[in-house]
């Protein structure tokens, strides 16, 4: 009699997901419905005050700002990643170019942030170069604003967009572009109307891989941004460490998680439409 070991193989994975994913999520859900403790933490008393506090106009302003920064950074990341992924897919040196894309992952996240501080700071490389050429001796304020936050977020999450786009573009049949050009389409039209619909799955994956972590970003707005760059990730951290309002931090976290899950679910429902291209292979005078 043949034994089925499927349950034995699945048990370690199920335990891992339960301990490190499901259990913490359930704890956050439970904390969001409890009363705030007098000296921090929570009290075992049912309360919806945390969700009432979320209607604070200041918090809503931060939420709108977070959404705006996330959308702008994601759009810029995809616009840069598309030509990069296309270039790597058409290159004969794919391994070298992919290696260069992956290299930043070898460096600590905080080290890369401080590297940008060294580049954009008042005494950074950019301002020093501007002073050397005699352009504005007092320098520019490149740091501690939304522009700096968006720039660094794009840099941080660009590899997450390039890799899925490259994987999808590499499987694309580039002869379709030549066929579109032969039928009268311009180079840009062939990219937009032929290639882009066929790599829609990679674009959706790249958007999810960038928008979700950017929406919950904490370190970049904290170290690079100013007062106009305070995001939801910073609010959650402050509620846990400074205000010690754990129920409010849990409620915000649950709302962000729910919105993210709904977005992923909606993206998953929109499966890329298959593109059917019919070719007339019968030459003039052929059989």
What does this structure look like?
By secondary structure, this protein is mainly α. It has a single domain, classed as MetI-like (MetI-like fold). 68% of the residues lie in helices and 3% in strands. Strands 1-2 form a two-stranded antiparallel sheet. A hairpin with a 5-residue loop joins strand 1 and strand 2. The longest helix has 34 residues. It is globular and about 70 Å long. 24% of the residues are buried.
Descriptors:
single chain; MetI-like fold; two-stranded antiparallel sheet; 68% helix; 3% strand
Provide a compact summary of the structure:
This protein has a single domain, classed as MetI-like fold (Orthogonal Bundle).
Helix-strand layout with pairing:
Elements: H1 6-32, E1 34-36, E2 42-46, H2 49-53, H3 57-90, H4 94-102, H5 109-120, H6 125-132, H7 146-170, H8 175-182, H9 187-198, H10 200-215, H11 219-224, H12 232-241, H13 246-269
Antiparallel strand pairs: 1-2
Helix pairs in contact: 1-13, 3-7, 3-10, 7-10, 8-9, 12-13
